[in-house]
Specification:
Layout: E1 3-7, H1 12-23, E2 27-31, H2 40-46, E3 56-59, H3 66-76, E4 80-83, H4 90-93, H5 97-118, E5 122-128, H6 152-171, E6 174-180, E7 183-184, H7 193-202, E8 207-210, E9 216-217, E10 220-221, H8 222-230, E11 239-244, E12 250-251, H9 252-263, E13 269-272, H10 287-293, H11 301-311
Parallel strand pairs: 1-2, 1-4, 2-3, 4-5, 5-6, 6-11, 7-10, 8-13
Antiparallel strand pairs: 9-12
Helix pairs in contact: 1-8, 3-5, 5-6, 7-9, 9-11
Length: about 325
C-alpha cells in the first residue's frame, strides 16, 4: 500500500484523483482549505463518499500555513505527493494578483519544502495550458517558448514549473509538471464553461459570448486527465513537463451548438467584446504524453458533455 498526499483533494480534479487512488487500495491523505472561490458545500459533496473510507484522511488546512503543513506531512509520510491545490481562473487573476501569487507560488514552495524535508522524492504538479499564452505555433509543444504569459494566473503556473525544476536540480526531487488543457466533467467548478453554460441554458438566461465565437479550446474530459496523472506514478522521470489535452480544439460557436443539441434547448446569447486575458486557441501536442506515459484521450467532447449533463440530472 502506498501513501499518497493530494493537495486540493476535495476539489474538482482532486476528488476524482482520490476516487481512483482509494479504489486502487492506496492510503490517501488530503489537504484542502475549502475556500470560498465557489461554494465549499460542493467540495464537501465531492468527498462525501470518501469520508466513509478507512484509508482516507482529511486535513482542512491552507497550504500557506507552514506549521500545519509540517504537521500533516510529518504524520502522513507520503510516498507520492500530487499537488493540485491552486487559485484557479484566468479572468479572476486580473484583479487578485497578490492572492494568486501567494497561493500558487508561495503555496507551491511550501509543498516542495515539505517534500524535501521528509524526503518524499516523487511529486506530480498541476500546471496549465495557459502558460502558452498567445503562441502562434500550434499545436502547443512542451518545447515552445512560454516566457510571455498573458495573465497573472499563467505567470504563477509557469513559476510553479520553474520552482519544480529548481527543487529537482538542487535536492533530487522527481517532479512532473502536467499542463492541463480545459478540463471539464462531473463535479466541475461552476465557473467552468460546460457547467456555467449548461445552467444558463436550462434557466433561459443569456450565455456570455466573448468575441465572435471563433476562439478554440482543447476541452479534455476529467477521466482522461486522471488517467494521465496516475500514469506518472513511479516513473522516476527526474524532471518533465507533459501536456495533457484532447488534441482536438473546438470553437466556442461549435461548443455552444453541441451543448444545445445535448440539452435540447436553444441558447440565448449575450454578445460581449473579446477579453484581453483570453487566448485565441489552446491546442495540445500530446506526442510526449503518448511516448512517456502511453497516454492518449479517449472521450470526445460530445460524449463528455453528454456524461456531464446526465450527471447533473438533466
Amino acid at each position: 500500500m502506498s501513501r499518497v498526499l493530494v493537495t486540493g483533494g476535495a476539489g474538482f480534479i482532486g476528488s476524482h484523483v482520490v476516487d481512483r487512488l482509494l479504489s486502487s487500495g492506496d492510503d490517501v491523505w488530503v489537504i484542502d482549505n475549502f475556500d470560498d472561490y465557489y461554494d465549499p458545500q460542493q467540495k464537501l459533496s465531492n468527498i462525501e463518499s470518501h469520508l466513509k473510507e478507512k484509508f482516507f484522511h482529511l486535513s482542512e488546512i491552507d497550504i500557506l500555513d507552514k506549521a500545519a503543513m509540517k504537521g500533516v506531512f510529518s504524520e502522513a509520510k507520503p510516498d507520492l505527493v500530487i499537488h493540485l491545490a491552486a487559485r484557479v481562473g484566468v479572468r479572476p487573476s486580473l484583479n487578485q494578483v497578490q492572492l494568486y501569487e501567494a497561493v500558487n507560488i508561495r503555496g507551491t514552495v511550501n509543498v516542495l519544502e515539505e517534500c524535501k524535508r521528509i524526503k518524499c522524492h516523487e511529486v506530480i504538479l498541476a500546471s496549465s495550458s495557459s502558460v502558452y499564452g498567445r503562441s502562434p505555433k500550434i499545436p502547443f509543444s512542451e518545447e515552445d517558448d512560454v516566457d510571455h504569459p498573458v495573465s497573472p494566473y499563467a505567470a504563477t503556473k509557469r513559476t510553479l514549473e520553474l520552482l519544480a525544476y529548481t527543487y529537482h536540480n538542487l535536492w533530487g526531487l522527481s517532479c512532473v509538471c502536467l499542463r492541463f488543457f480545459n478540463v471539464y466533467g462531473e463535479r466541475g467548478r461552476p465557473d467552468n464553461i460546460p457547467a456555467m453554460f449548461t445552467q444558463l441554458i436550462l434557466s433561459t438566461k443569456p450565455i456570455p459570448k466573448f468575441g465572435d465565437g471563433t476562439t478554440r479550446r482543447d476541452y479534455t474530459y476529467i477521466s482522461d486527465i486522471v488517467d494521465g496523472i496516475l500514469r506518472c506514478r513511479r516513473k522516476e522521470f527526474g524532471y518533465e513537463i507533459i501536456n495533457l489535452g484532447n488534441h482536438h480544439p473546438v470553437s466556442l460557436n461549435d461548443f455552444i451548438t453541441t451543448l444545445e443539441g445535448i440539452v435540447g434547448i436553444k441558447a440565448v446569447i449575450e454578445q460581449l467584446p473579446f477579453n484581453p486575458a483570453d487566448v485565441p486557441v489552446t491546442y495540445a501536442d500530446i506526442s510526449k504524453a503518448k511516448r512517456l506515459l502511453d497516454w492518449e484521450p479517449k472521450v470526445s467532447l460530445s460524449e463528455g458533455l453528454r456524461r456531464y449533463v446526465e450527471s447533473v440530472g438533466i
